[in-house]
């Protein structure tokens, strides 16, 4: 069983930055991913990081703007979001996958956090 708690969302102006945190309890997972879902849209993968060797993968829409990282001592994964755009507005979720090949497909993930709202608006 893995429990995930996100934090760090909020309101930010276009061009601004936010850092999201995902605190995980338990260690029986291989990959932590960040996902987002905007109203009326499907949930989409944003970034993921492997537990064993910290390999990362990003969606094209956020590459070079977002950075995923981890602090193993705190069992926490971060998503640093820079140069935010209104299109980044969504509820952001972190999720844990139980197999090492998981990437950005929501169906690959077993455990989910409750989500944190990110709103990019002037």
Give an overview of the whole structure.
There is one protein chain. This protein is an all-beta fold. 0% of the residues lie in helices and 49% in strands. It contains no helices and eleven strands. It has strands at residues 3-7, 10-12, 18-25, 31-37, 44-50, 56-58, 66-71, 76-81, 90-97, 111-112, 116-120. Strands 2, 4, 5, 6, 9, 10 and 11 form a seven-stranded mixed β-sheet that branches. A hairpin with a 6-residue loop joins strand 4 and strand 5. It is globular and about 40 Å long. The N and C termini lie far apart (40 Å). The mean pLDDT is 95.
Please provide a brief summary of the model:
The chain is mainly beta and 122 residues long. It has strands spanning 3-7, 10-12, 18-25, 31-37, 44-50, 56-58, 66-71, 76-81, 90-97, 111-112, 116-120.
What structural keywords apply?
mainly beta; seven-stranded mixed sheet; 0% helix
Query: Largest sheet, described in full?
Result: 7 strands, mixed
Helix content: under 10%
Number of strands: 11
**What is the tally of helical segments?**
0
Low-confidence stretches: none
Structural class: mainly beta
- Strand fraction equals over 45%
- How would the global form be characterised? globular
User: Ends: how far apart?
Assistant: 40 Å
């Amino acid at each position: 069983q893995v429990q995930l708690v996100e934090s760090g969302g909020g309101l930010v102006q276009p061009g601004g930055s936010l850092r999201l945190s995902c605190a995980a309890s338990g260690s029986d997972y291989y990959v932590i991913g960040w996902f987002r879902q905007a109203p009326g849209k499907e949930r989409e993968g944003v970034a993921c990081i492997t537990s064993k060797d910290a390999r990362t993968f990003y969606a094209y829409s956020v590459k070079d703007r977002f950075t995923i990282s981890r602090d193993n001592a705190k069992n926490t994964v971060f998503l640093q979001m820079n140069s935010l755009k209104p299109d980044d507005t969504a509820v952001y979720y972190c999720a844990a996958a139980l197999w090492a090949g998981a990437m950005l497909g929501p169906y690959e993930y077993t455990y989910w956090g409750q989500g944190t709202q990110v709103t990019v608006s002037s």
